[in-house]
Amino acid sequence: MAPALRLDTRRPTAIAVLAMGGQGGGVLVDWIVALAESQGHIAQATSVPGVAQRTGATIYYVETIAPDGSGRRPILSLMPVPGEVDIVIGAELMEAGRAIQRGLVSPDRTALIASSHRAYAVSEKVVPGDGAGDPAKVYEAAQAASKQFLAFDMAAIAEETESVVSAALFGALAASGALPYPRGAYEATIRAAGLGVEASLRAFDRAYAAAENERRTPTAPAARPSRGSVKKKLPALGPIGDSGFDALVERAGKLPEPAHGMAAAGLARVVDFQDVAYGQEYLDRVEAFAAIERQSASGSAAFLLTCAAAKQIARAMAYDDVIRVADLKTRGSRFDRVRSEIALRPDQIAYTTEFMHPRMEEVCGTLPAGIGLWLESSPRVMGALRRFVDRGRRVQTGTIGWFLPLYLLAGWRRFRRGTLRHRREEAHIAAWLDQAGAAAKHDIALGVALLEARRLVKGYSDTHDAGEGRFSRLMAMARRLEGRADAADWVRRLRQSALADAEGRAFADTIKTVESFL
Prior knowledge:
single chain, two-stranded parallel ribbon, 23 helices, 10 strands, 53% helix
């Protein structure tokens, strides 16, 4: 009869690591396992991959235990169990929040370590409005749910040391004291791995010091700045390739002072989009709303109408068309930013692959108005061309075969005013501003709400069409609401509901509510 298997029933140390693709979660887990084994401990690692790089994070799981000398075999699990995890490491702040939601963090036992930077998930990006999670809420939940919470910007440390975030996370783990291993053992583990040793040690050292400081004086997260806020003032902006820009800056300086920052950003944006003459058109439109507000008895010292006009008119005039997309994708500054983000060395080459899905509608919009209209009115020609145009393409902008066509397309902007898309955008903008200006003359708040409704229109292709459809419905409802004391409030509610979800369910419900009392 075989002898009974002797099992070690002691509880091992449980470590969960949550990381998205490209953040080095696997490297970090390999280091943890190697570290434990170098100290004579038994370690086991498993992982459950996420759906995609920016959709779901991979959950890596490590259990480690020191042998007791009895020869008994430990019982190690393959997955983390809620309420039974000792250390949770999040390679990005919201991954720490998701670990809390999954129940992996417990106030009586879990050390929670996370980088405070953000890498936005698909679920945050697809929301028509601002879908980004609030970091302050994660900090609050983490401090309440964990026994120890360490968080600071480890991605910045990795970038500054030309390393990866996993090395910074390893340093923070060492400084936390959550594992019974000396600092030298951590550093020896990095050296033994043999890859990127010096850079990894630099990141480890910086993160170790930052974690020790964080343990002494925990810091709260900085408030997430408003995406519309612009701190630059007009005098700080230099000319953009044309001496006439200086004159525009001087002219914009005559707008109400509270609008200077927004006008500075708006002016720079529209001139960069087209040219100085386009900047003059922008100021003509903003000045018209400033004049309405100056003459209005209900205007405020904050000049909310002028600020809204400075922001939303710039967004509307610098719309996303094929020419703009080609321009942004072929700029040297973009290639520099990509190289910086992936910490590319001077002797390395990176190729960026873009996914582009043009439609015949975008082709027609880029052509001279007459030709574009003729194509759109010819179903047989449109159908034949769709077979070649309406399909997704993976474009490598680092190759001459794709860079050159995009570069030439970007140069088409000198002819943009004659395109079908520009003609339609100008008509759309004129109708919007006429309605907002007429409303503002008797109701400043309604004028502001109508200007801000332009937030619904963004992007190009299907995204633009969907947003423009909601915008048109909102403006139609606004015409029916005019004259009511609460018109501005309802227009704001309509806008907020239209931004609430991509499917438009909340917007449809709000429209039904409005129609019920009109």
